[in-house]
Design brief:
The complex is a heterodimer of chains A (about 425) and B (about 450). By secondary structure, chain A is an alpha/beta fold. Chain A is built from 15 helices and 13 strands. In chain A, helix 1 packs across helix 3, helix 4 crosses helix 6 and helix 12 runs parallel beside helix 13. An eight-stranded parallel barrel of chain B has the order 3-4-7-8-9-10-15-16, surrounded by seven helices. In chain B, strand 12 and strand 13 form a beta hairpin. Chain B starts with 5 loop residues before the first strand and ends in a 15-residue tail after the last helix. The chains are: A alpha/beta (about 425), B alpha/beta (about 450). The structure holds flavin-adenine dinucleotide (FAD), flavin mononucleotide and iron/sulfur cluster (2 copies). The site of one iron/sulfur cluster (SF4) has 14 residues of chain B, from loops.
C-alpha cells in the first residue's frame, strides 16, 4: 500500500537493519507450533489490548494467517506496529508458561507482526463500520491513542476527526520508535490502512487556540497528545553545537536526510537511563559510533529502562557509567569537546563529538490546562477515570502517554479503545452528548 | 552385555534389527553400507517381474511441526531387472555370511512362484518373505494385498512356497483386513515358518487444497497408497500381540510398523515378536540409527537383568487380556504435581469438555463431601498471588480416564494414583459367571416415558 506522503529517500533510518525481521511462513509456523494453546491463557490476560494471543497463534500454526490477522486486529488495530515495538517479554510473553518449563517463551510480538503484515501491504479491512450515528468526535493528536480511539469510534458508527499538529500522522510511531524496530514508512502505512476505514485526519493543525470551538462543534473530545518535547539539561555550556535532545535527534534520524552525526564521530554520550536513552545509545552504536557511553545518575538496577534493552545495548557495545552526572559541557572555539562528569564522587572529563540528552520529556501542561475541567496530577498527566478514560469533563476523554500508566504503544491503543467504548456507552449512544 | 542375536525360524542374525523390504534394501550398494554399520539383517526390496513406477511417490503427515510422523507411498515392487537383483543378493550374502539376507518375492502363477523361489534360493539367501501385503498397484494385478485379504489364497500360495522352498518361508501380512488372526492362521496352516507384519495401511495422506488433488501428486492426480511410520505403530502392536496370543498360531513373528527407536522394538518384542523390521525411520534418518538401536536395546536388557534379547520376547503378552477379564474394582485418580505444573491449564478444558468435569482452576470451591486434597490450598495460594494457576482434582468425581495426563505437556506432572476401593477383584466375565451383571438404569429397568 502506498502512503500519501513523501519521505526523503536518503533517510538515516534506512541505514539500520531490522532487529527482528518479518518471519517467513515456515519460521512463523514453527514458532507457533511451540505454543501450548493454553486454556484461559496468561499471555492473553497480560496483553494490555486484550489480544486473544493463544487463539491467533493457533491460527498461524494452522496456516490461517488471515484469521490470525483478524483475531489480532479485532483487539488491536495497531497490531502491526505493536508486533514491531511491543516489549513482549515484559507483557504477554513475560507470563508465557513456557518460562516455567525452562523453555524459551513464545515470540508473541513477532508472530503478530507476521499475522498482520498483509493488513499493511494490501490495506484490506476486516471489519465494517456500523450505521452512521451522526455523532462527531474530535481527537487531538494522531498518535496510537487517537488512532485506536478513532478506529473504534468509526466501527461504532460515529464520525471521528483527528487533529495533528505535525505534518505527518502517527505520533511517536512515526517520529520516535527505534528504526531497527520499525521504519517511519511502515508506521505511515499503518496509519493509512487505519485511515481508510473512513477517518479524517487533519495534519498541520495545532488545536491550542481552538479548544472552545472543538467543544462546540463536536459531541466529544479525545485528548491523545502524548508527552511533550525533551526536558532540557541545566548545566553550563549546554547551548551550542553538538548537544541535542533525544526526541529531536531521533525524529531527525527517522524522517530527514540531514546527517544525524557530525563527520567522524568517535565518541558519543547519552545522558539518562530510560528507554529513550537506551534507544538513542543503541542507535548510535548501530550507526557505528565506536564509543557510546550512557551517563546515568543512578545504577543499572534502578534504571527505568527495560533490563532486556540494557542487555541488548551492552551487547552492541554501549558502556554504562553509573552514579554519573554531567556538570559542564566543554567547547573549544564553539566546537564540542566533551563534558565534565562527576562519577562516583570523582570528577572526570569525557570526550564527545555528540551529546544526546534523554532525561525525560516535558508535559503539555499549558495546553492541557486550557481544556475546561480537565485536571492534572503532580506529574502533569491528565487524571482520568480508570474504567472509562473520562476526564473531569463529561465530554472529554483522554489516553496514551498524556495520561498515567505505561508509556507504551499498546497501552495507548488500549486507552484509546477503552475511551471510544465508554464515549459510545455514556455519551454518543444515549444522546447525552452534543453541543 | 546382553546377547542380542536372534533366531527367527532358523534364520540367525547378530541382532534383531532388520531392514524391511523397501527402498533402503533396493540394492547391494545400499545393503552393504547398512551391514557395514551393523544392521542384523535385510529383507530385500520385493523382487519379481520388474514394474514401472510413477513420480512423485510419497506423501507424509506432520504433527505440530514434527516431520513425517506418518508416511504414505505408492511405490511398487522393484523396478530393477531380476537378474541384477539376484546377482547383488548373492554378492551381499557372500560378503556378509553372518547377517540375515531374506528375499521378498511376489509372483502371479504357481509356475512363477516356483521359478522365483528357485532363482532366489540360488543366491544363497537365508529365507524368503512372501509379499502378500502391498495395498496398491500390485493388487490390481491379483498380487500383494489382493492375496493377503483372502485367507484361502494365502493358505494355498504359502503351501506352494513350502513345496518349492528349502529355506524358511516368512509370510508378510497386510493389515488391510478386519481380523488379523484369520490371515495369520491361514499362513500357519499353509505351513509358513514365520509371519511378518504389518505391511502398509491403505491411505491418503492429505489433499492439496489449492488444486484439489490428494497427495502425493502425480501429474494432477493421485491414488491411495500405503501408510507407515510412527503413526501406525499402535495398530501394528495390536496385530502382533493378537497373533502372539492366538493359540493356533505357534510360529515366530517378525514385527514391522512404526519402529523408530530401540524402545519401539523392545515393545514389539515384549508383545511377542522375535525380531523387528524397519523402513520409515531409515528413510527419515538413514542407516546410522542402528548404533542407537543396538546400544539402547543392549543397555535396556542389562538394566533389566536379561541375559539375552530372547528373554524379552513375549514378556508382555500375558498382560494383554480381553476387556471382560479386567478388574472392575481397580481405581485410579489424577494427581497433579503442584511443583511441576506450569499452569497452562490444558487439563481443564480436556477434563470439562472431553471427560468427566473434575479438574478446576484455583479459587473454585470443592463440592461438599468430595475428596479434593488441593482445593483449599489452591484457593489460599490464589489469594496470595493472583497469577497462581495450578489446577486441582476432585477425586470423588474423577473416573481415572487418564486424559489429563496425556494432555499435560510437562513430563510426569499428572500421574494416576491408585485409590483403595476396599472391594475384591472382580471382572465382567466373573460377573457373567455369577449372574450379577444387572446395572440399574438400563433399557429394561426404567419404564418407557
Ligand atoms: C524514543 C521513544 C521510543 C519508544 N519506543 C517504544 C517501543 O519500542 N515500544 C513501545 O511500546 N513504546 C515505545 N515508546 C512509547 C510510545 O511511542 C508511546 O507510548 C506512544 O506513542 C504513545 O501514544 P500517544 O498516542 O499517547 O502519543 P504520541 O505517539 O506521542 O502521539 C501524540 C501526537 O499528538 C500530537 N500533538 C501534540 N500536541 C498537539 C496539539 N496541540 N495539537 C495537535 N496535535 C498535537 C503530537 O504531534 C503527536 O503526533 C517510545 C517512546 C519514545 C519517545
Ligand atoms: C516407499 C516404500 C516402499 C515399500 N515397498 C515395499 C515392498 O516392496 N515390499 C514390501 O513387502 N513392503 C514394502 N514397503 C512396506 C515396508 O516394508 C514396511 O512394511 C512398512 O513401511 C512399515 O514399516 P515402517 O513403519 O518401519 O515403515 C514399502 C514401504 C515404503 C515406505
Ligand atoms: S502462555 Fe505461552 S504457551 Fe501458553 S498460550 Fe500463551 S504464548 Fe502459548
Ligand atoms: S496440563 Fe499439566 S502443566 Fe498444564 S495446568 Fe494441567 S497439570 Fe498443570
Amino acid at each position: 500500500m502506498t502512503i500519501p506522503f513523501t519521505l526523503p529517500k536518503q533517510r538515516w533510518e534506512l541505514k539500520f537493519s531490522e532487529a527482528y525481521p518479518l518471519y517467513t511462513d515456515a519460521e512463523a509456523i514453527a514458532e507457533a507450533n511451540r505454543c501450548l494453546y493454553c486454556y484461559d491463557a496468561p499471555c492473553t490476560k497480560t496483553c494490555p489490548a486484550g489480544i486473544d494471543v493463544a487463539v491467533f497463534i493457533r491460527k498461524i500454526a494452522e496456516r490461517n494467517r488471515h484469521g490470525a490477522a483478524k483475531t489480532v486486529l479485532a483487539s488491536n488495530i495497531l497490531g502491526y506496529s505493536c508486533g514491531c515495538v511491543c516489549p513482549d517479554v515484559v507483557l504477554c510473553a513475560g507470563s508465557c508458561v513456557l518460562k516455567d518449563f525452562k523453555k524459551p517463551v513464545i515470540q508473541i510480538a513477532r508472530l503478530h507482526r507476521y499475522a498482520t503484515e498483509k493488513f499493511l501491504s494490501d490495506g484490506k479491512h476486516f471489519f465494517t463500520p456500523a450505521t452512521a450515528t451522526g455523532k462527531k468526535v474530535a481527537l487531538v493528536g494522531a498518535g496510537p491513542a487517537s488512532l485506536a480511539c478513532a478506529y473504534e469510534l468509526k466501527l461504532l458508527g460515529h464520525e471521528p476527526v483527528i487533529f495533528e499538529k505535525k505534518t505527518l500522522p502517527g505520533g511517536l510511531n512515526t517520529t520516535g520508535i527505534a528504526p531497527y524496530k520499525m521504519t517511519a514508512e511502515d508506521a505511515l502505512r499503518e496509519v493509512e490502512a487505519i485511515r481508510r476505514i473512513g477517518i479524517e485526519i487533519r495534519t498541520g493543525v495545532d488545536i491550542s487556540s481552538q479548544i472552545k470551538t472543538l467543544l462546540k462543534d463536536y459531541d466529544a473530545v479525545f485528548i491523545g497528545v502524548g508527552i511533550g518535547d525533551d526536558t532540557e539539561l541545566n548545566v553550563p555550556g549546554i547551548d551550542g553545537d553538538g548537544v541535542i535532545g533525544s526526541i529531536e535527534w531521533i525524529e531527525q534520524l527517522r524522517l530527514s536526510d540531514k546527517p544525524a552525526l557530525p563527520k567522524n564521530t568517535k565518541r558519543a554520550l547519552v545522558v539518562g537511563g530510560g528507554n529513550t536513552a537506551l534507544d538513542a545509545a543503541r542507535e548510535l552504536a548501530q550507526l557505528g559510533v565506536p564509543e557510546v557511553t550512557m551517563v546515568y545518575r543512578r545504577t543499572a538496577q534502578l534504571m527505568p529502562g527495560f533490563r532486556h534493552e540494557l542487555n541488548d545495548a551492552r551487547i552492541e557495545g554501549v558502556h554504562l557509567l553509573e552514579h554519573a552526572v554531567i556538570t559542564e559541557i566543554v567547547r573549544e572555539k564553539g566546537k564540542l569537546k566533551g563534558a565534565r562528569v562527576r562519577a562516583s564522587d570523582e570528577d572526570i572529563f569525557l570526550q564527545a563529538d555528540i551529546i544526546i540528552i534523554a532525561i525525560g520529556q516535558a508535559k503539555w501542561r499549558d495546553l492541557l490546562m486550557k481544556f475546561p475541567d480537565v485536571e492534572l496530577n503532580e506529574a502533569n498527566e491528565i487524571i482520568v477515570d480508570e474504567e472509562t478514560g473520562r476526564t473531569g469533563n463529561q465530554r472529554i476523554y483522554a489516553g496514551g502517554d498524556a495520561t498515567p500508566g505505561m508509556k507504551l504503544v499498546v497501552q495507548a491503543v488500549a486507552d484509546g479503545k477503552r475511551a471510544a467504548q465508554a464515549m459510545h456507552r455514556e455519551l454518543l449512544q444515549t444522546g447525552k452528548g452534543g453541543a | 552385555m546382553a546377547e542380542l542375536s536372534v533366531n527367527l525360524a532358523g534364520i540367525k542374525s547378530p541382532n534383531p534389527f532388520w531392514l524391511a523390504s523397501a527402498p533402503p534394501t533396493n540394492s547391494a550398494e545400499q545393503v552393504m553400507r547398512a551391514f557395514d554399520l551393523g544392521w542384523g539383517g535385510v529383507v530385500w526390496k520385493t523382487i519379481g517381474d520388474p514394474i514401472v513406477n510413477v513420480s512423485s511417490r510419497l506423501g507424509s503427515i506432520d504433527a505440530d511441526g514434527i516431520r513425517m510422523v506418518g508416511l504414505n507411498n505408492i511405490e511398487l515392487i522393484t523396478d530393477r531387472p531380476l537378474n541384477e537383483n539376484l546377482r547383488e543378493i548373492r554378492e551381499v550374502k557372500k560378503r556378509f555370511p553372518d547377517r540375515a539376507v531374506v528375499v521378498s518375492i511376489m509372483a502371479e502363477s504357481k509356475d512363477d512362484w516356483r521359478e522365483l523361489i528357485r532363482r532366489s534360493e540360488d543366491t544363497g539367501c537365508d529365507g524368503l518373505e512372501l509379499n502378500f501385503g502391498c495395498p496398491h498397484g500390485m493388487c490390481e494385478r491379483g498380487m500383494g494385498s489382493a492375496v493377503g485379504q483372502e485367507p484361502k489364497v494365502i493358505r494355498e500360495i504359502t503351501a506352494w512356497a513350502r513345496e518349492f522352498a528349502s529355506t524358511p518361508v516368512i509370510v508378510k501380512l497386510t493389515p488391510n483386513i478386519s481380523d488379523i488372526v484369520e490371515p495369520g492362521r491361514a499362513a500357519t496352516e499353509g505351513g509358513a515358518h514365520a509371519l511378518s507384519l504389518i505391511n502398509t495401511i491403505k491411505s491418503l495422506t492429505g489433499v492439496d487444497l489449492d488444486n484439489f488433488v490428494p497427495f502425493p501428486v502425480v501429474g494432477g492426480q493421485s491414488t491411495p497408497g500405503g501408510f507407515c511410520g510412527p503413526a501406525v505403530k499402535p495398530i501394528a502392536l495390536h496385530m502382533v500381540s493378537a497373533l502372539a496370543k492366538d493359540s493356533k498360531i505357534n510360529i515366530p513373528i517378525s514385527a514391522i510398523g512404526g519402529i523408530s527407536t530401540w524402545r519401539d522394538a523392545a515393545e514389539f518384542m515384549a508383545l511377542g515378536a522375535t525380531n523387528v523390521q524397519i523402513c520409515t525411520a531409515v528413510m527419515h534418518y538413514g542407516y546410522r540409527i542402528i548404533e542407537q538401536l543396538t546400544d539402547g536395546l543392549s543397555n535396556y536388557l542389562d538394566e533389566h537383568n536379561m541375559a539375552s534379547a530372547q528373554e524379552l520376547i513375549g514378556r508382555a503378552v500375558p498382560a494383554v487380556v480381553d476387556w471382560g477379564d479386567l478388574n472392575l474394582n481397580y481405581k485410579v485418580v489424577a494427581d497433579i504435581n503442584q511443583e511441576k505444573c506450569i499452569g497452562c491449564q490444558l487439563c481443564i478444558p480436556a477434563c470439562h469438555d472431553g471427560a468427566h468435569q473434575c479438574i478446576y482452576p484455583p479459587g473454585v470451591e470443592a463440592k461438599p463431601g468430595h475428596t479434593a486434597p488441593h482445593a483449599a490450598e489452591a484457593a489460599e495460594k490464589l489469594a496470595d498471588d493472583p497469577t497462581y494457576r495450578v489446577p486441582w482434582v476432585d477425586e470423588t468425581d474423577c473416573v481415572g480416564c487418564n486424559l489429563c495426563a496425556h494432555v499435560c505437556p510437562v513430563p510426569d506432572c499428572i500421574t494416576m494414583k491408585q485409590v483403595e476401593t476396599k472391594k475384591p477383584r472382580e471382572s465382567w466375565n466373573e460377573r457373567i459367571a455369577k449372574g450379577t451383571t444387572f446395572i440399574p438404569g438400563g433399557l429394561h429397568d426404567s419404564p418407557a416415558s
